Amino acid sequence: MALEGSYDLTRFALDAEAEIQRLNAQIDLFWKQELALYRQAGLQDGMRVLDCGCGTGYLLHKLRGVFPNLHCTGIEVDERLVAVARRTGGGRERWQIFQHSISSLDFPDDAFDLVVARLVLEHLPDPVAALKEMRRVLRDGGKAVVIDNDFDLHERTWPDSPALGDLYEAYRRARRRDGGNPCIGRELPGLLKAAGFGSVDLSLLAAHSHVLGDAAFLKAEGSGIPAQLVKTGYLSPDTLDRIGGQWRSMLSRRHHAIFRMLFAAVGEKGAVAPALDSDLESNVTTYTASSSSGSVEPALVSVDRLRRFILETLANELKADAETLPTGESLIRSGVDSMAAMALCSRLESQFGVTLSLADVLCDSSIDDLARKVLSLAPAGDFA
Ligand SMILES: C[S@@+](CC[C@H](N)C(=O)[O-])C[C@H]1O[C@@H](n2cnc3c(N)ncnc32)[C@H](O)[C@@H]1O
């Protein structure tokens, strides 16, 4: 099965086996709060649970430890992880793992009481399509729990380790380049609504080293991802050394602390979704644009069209070939200066009625980010 998006076990971290251990440690890190969240979402023994992108199957295994009669189903695209998740089940009854994509689930409507996607949507090019599938297979009144990172609000330490900022900046670039959205955490409630969930809630899950101990964090972070970022050219070896040095110095301080957050959104199937979210659906919205004759015509605008518009505007300003401008790289690194950025802001305003600041364009944004942002800022149904 073809993998799409920004998670591929064999390329994500330097060592696949260590990455499998890291995934499990990440579940342990947030387990106490997550279990409370699943209970709050109505999970009870005997229910039918689907874990989408179940990885090693460890979440289902932990849930089964608390609810022994749970009907556990996992789906996973990665063949190797499918095999691991089947082994995690250890031949138990009511334990099924299938090789499916979350975007086209091979289950009938209304088949599950609770559907989970944990650290999966952040890797997908079309998270709304995945959420629609999750909603379809839920029974009326059933809940979807989606948990993701937001790499602007990720791990922090005391004393501060500023080099972590460089690591996360490199990580964000790599994931965006591969088609993911590493800052999706803050968008989760809106995406759930766009997929048709009517009642939506959001909580932040927090893990702290004074509660869980340093070892829990060291296992959940590891060095496989930073090392892979160096290997693939997103992070310099010097920066990796700085990260290691600051990390060691932080750990040597008596009252040091490590803190990390996850975003958890819960949506219920049943209530009617507000109409305003149609603009996020399939990343397509309608707008009215002035034609050359001056009349106003309805048209469709998508992230793809906005990306093209931004690309061509910048290429024109920079006197460059549009094909040479990378769409996933930070604009400032691609040579976009403040004059070109100002010209882009003004064209986006006159063409689409969307006002962006210079910082929106220049601070760690790529053309892909901007296209998504312009689409999300568009007045619903009237992109004038
Ligand atoms: C970061 S891992 C998280 C795994 C697991 N949910 C956990 O919390 O440990 C992301 C998982 O999503 C899976 N995945 C990526 N794209 C997928 C898709 N389209 N359908 C199903 N699973 C997918 C990956 O193979 C991987 O197992």
Beta strands, count: 10
Let me know the average pLDDT: 86
Instruction: Please report the number of helical segments.
Output: 15
Strand proportion:
15-25%
Please give the CATH architecture of the largest domain. 3-Layer(aba) Sandwich
The poorly predicted ranges are 273-299, 380-384
| Helix proportion range | 40-55%
In short:
With 384 residues, the chain is of the alpha/beta class.
Description:
The protein is α/β, with parallel strands linked by helices and 384 residues long. The chain folds into two domains: 9-273, Vaccinia Virus protein VP39 (Rossmann fold, 3-Layer(aba) Sandwich), CATH 3.40.50; 277-377, ACP-like (Non-ribosomal Peptide Synthetase Peptidyl Carrier Protein, Chain A, Orthogonal Bundle), CATH 1.10.1200.10. It is 43% helix and 18% strand. The strands form two sheets. Strands 1, 2, 3, 4, 5, 6, 7 and 8 form an eight-stranded mixed sheet that branches. A two-stranded antiparallel sheet has the order 9-10. Strand 2 (71-75), helix 4 and strand 3 (95-98) form a beta-alpha-beta unit. It is globular and about 65 Å long.
